[in-house]
Amino acid sequence: ALPPPPAPLPATITTSSNDDNNEASSRWMAPPSAKSLRTHNPIRAIVDPIMVANSIKSERRIDGKDLISLALGDPTAYGNLPPCPAILSAIARAIRIQPLPNSDNNNSTTKNNNTTAGYVNACGTIEARSAIARHHSFIPSRSSINSANIGSSDSADVDGESFVPSEHLSKEDVDAVESPSGSSSLGTVSPMDVIVANGASGALELALTALLDEDSILLVPRPGFPLYQVIAESHGATVMQYDLLPDKSWECDLEYMERIIIKHQKQQEGEGRGKSKVIRGILVNNPSNPTGAVYAQTHLMEIVKLATKYRVPIVADEIYGDMTFGGKVFHPMADVAARLGYEVPIITASGLGKQYLVPGWRLGWIVFQDNIHGSIRQVQEGAQRLAQVVLGASHLAQVAIPAVLAPTSTSLEEEEDKSQDGNDCVTMMLSSSSSTALWKAALYSTMEKQATLLCGLLDQCRGLRVIFPEGAMYAMVRIEVDKFDDLVVDDVSFMKLLLEEENIVVLPGCAFGLGGGAKTKDNGTNGNDDARSSYYVFRVVFCAPEHILRTASKRIASFCLRHKSTDLDWKHACFG
User: Fold this and answer.
1) By CB neighbour count within 10 A (0-12 exposed, 13-18 middle, 19+ buried), where does 55 fall?
2) First to last CA, the chain
3) Which of 177, 141, 174 minimizes the C-alpha distance to 159?
4) CA distance 183 to 512
5) Are 491 and 479 in contact (CB under 8 A)?
6) From CA 234, how far away is CA 222, in angstroms rounded?
7) Which residues contact 126 (CB under 8 A, 6 or more apart)?
8) What are the average pLDDT values for consecutive 10-residue runs of the chain, which has 576 residues?
9) How many whole angstroms separate alpha carbon 302 and alpha carbon 151?
């Protein structure tokens, strides 16, 4: 979305004053909707004018420097990271078994379940939703269920061994704990709790549209993925930002978050319900875009306890899943909420795009994991109705979901034509699951290696300090403005000059909500806004091949030296 268009003209027919024949003019304007006028992407508003200006200058470049983008969050952009083979095989197999024209299948009166050319249920295929449900399920211990039933948040903090993770959960396990009505029992997810959407972005759009109204507030992270704000404000809702603390590995500032909640709850009590805006959700992104942070289970527990205290649902953006580095462990928010007694409902958005390197296939989903009170049942029903407006991912693309999340012997029988030997099918199923796991492990190892390379080189640049990532595909780099000349005054000027001089694109922190820089608590201030210090940052993506990362780092290092502060050199010479 570009900057706001001019105010719409009235949708009326006007007559030209110069028309001697007094004929009606054909000039008329249809006004845009209020929602479209409220929809603005802050990244586009900041970056597009700079990129347009640079494209004009690039036509006259004589330094031979090709454009290098460290800004685009597409892991496939440079072609060095190919998609998961299991996904490609699944799609190829699905295409191969389509009925051909004039084939014997066309004369059959029975339904052909193999075709993926037709329409699909608005919430997704049953195969895809079942695989997603299993992926997000776990079996709680009897003690945790008892704790949940008595509503004790404190006593439900159970040992990790009390939960069977989804990768060890069989279809029989899920069937055993599902009720006949199709609703899920504690710790498990039913296919009815899943909606397949057009990518994780489409999943978030669906979830937030079902959750928010014009009188509602959504709490979002700062810095954070700007789409949350775009979606919420397009519906007329208000966004309130809670800070992530760079000096605490980008953890959520829970003290600040609680002050926001208390302030608005007091306003609601004073003005009466219906007159003040209501906080409808807390959005938590883990692993994080743009920071690369991966939250510890203890921190996630504190978030859940805060949401429990003030009865606010959590929307968990977990598109990067277990893409973590350096021994960090990804903990799904719904699992954490379960350990604390099922008091907080969790709406999880995820997908295959980033973890399996098919972002252009638009394979995402939302999972509704309600609490023991059924607090978001009506929100879930609303999302299911909204899903009927625009169908999600294509029928063909959805074949990829069970292929990687829950490979079955049936699909492997079809692929290898070995339906007569069940043992062969079981062996192949285990082999397929193992090969996908090995592929993911190799991918994450490559990503970690590239992150270490780029971040290590940038951290050596004069005036830059890297906040090393723990997962996802991003890292935040601190700009020590006082070590640069007068041309570099903030993150936008740094990005603009770097693009002009070195033909390298990075994203400034203000594109992620850091208009005044990242916030860090000053000692003794208790986190008061007006007592916080700020510094500027930019985001880099480390998915490019190593030789490109090295070239980009070398150019950035040259840029930093070229724009070094002479005042610092003078001070160093005078005072050592």
Assistant:
1) exposed
2) 50
3) 141
4) 38
5) yes
6) 19
7) 191
8) 48 49 67 88 77 68 86 92 93 78 52 72 94 84 39 36 46 44 63 95 95 94 95 94 94 96 83 73 97 97 97 97 93 94 95 95 95 95 93 90 78 44 46 80 95 97 96 96 94 94 94 74 45 76 96 97 76 41
9) 17
